[in-house]
Design goal:
It contains no helices and no strands. The radius of gyration is 17 Å and the shape is elongated. By secondary structure, the protein is mostly loops.
Length: 42
């Protein structure tokens, strides 16, 4: 069963419980750094 999530998706979540492979899930909140914080060590 191939289903493609298209631009018409409104993020209603109705497809999440229907996916037989648990391949659709709600993403976590985006990570943000506090103002003035720098990423080092890369």
């Amino acid at each position: 069963m191939a289903i493609i999530i298209t631009e018409e998706c409104i993020n209603c979540g109705a497809c999440e419980p229907e996916c037989p492979n648990n391949a659709i899930y709600e993403g976590a909140m985006a990570w943000r750094m506090a103002e003035g914080t720098a990423l080092t060590g890369l």
